Amino acid sequence: MRLPRVLRNLAFVAGLAGASVLPGHAQEPTINIMTGASTGTYIQFGRDMQQLMSACGKDMGVVETAGSLENFLGVRQRRYTQFGIVQNDVLEYMQTFASQDPVVARTIRGVRIAFPLYEEEVHILARNDISGLRDLTGKRVAIGVEDSGTFLTASLMLSLAGVEPAEKVLIGPADGLEQLKAGNIDAFFYVAGAPASLYSENAIDGAQFHLVPIADDTLRSVYTPSTLPANTYPFQTEPVDLVSVKAVLMTFEYQMNGNAYHRAACGAVSDLSSLILTNLDELKASGHPKWQDVDLTAIPPGWDISGCVNRGISPGYVASCTAPTTNNSPESEANEVYRRSICEVMGC
Question: Which CATH architecture has domain 1-321?
Answer without folding.
Answer: 3-Layer(aba) Sandwich (3.40)
